[in-house]
Design a protein that fits this description.
Number of helices: 3
Order of helices and strands: HHH
Oligomer: single chain
């Protein structure tokens, strides 16, 4: 069981590092101020989910879910 706990801890650390990198790669919310002037109907505005920013948002959501699940599993003390 100690080997499994060690493997999960290493995966937890790798997810934390990856999550940090993904969050730092994202644009700030102030970058979207062009929507005030009506620039929201551009190609990138319509296809936000397929753009790099959309992919980063999806990856962040998945990584946060994995991070929370692993944190709970590691703190339950069943290993």
């Amino acid at each position: 069981m100690e080997v499994l706990k060690m493997i999960l801890t290493v995966i937890f650390i790798l997810i934390a590092i990856a999550l940090t990198v993904i969050i730092l790669m994202q644009e700030g919310k102030s970058a979207g101020l062009g929507a005030i002037a009506g620039a929201a109907d551009t190609y990138w505005g319509k296809n936000k989910g397929r753009s790099m920013e959309g992919i980063l948002v999806k990856m962040t959501t998945i990584m946060v879910a994995l991070f929370i699940i692993l944190a709970i599993v590691l703190n339950l003390g069943i290993f």
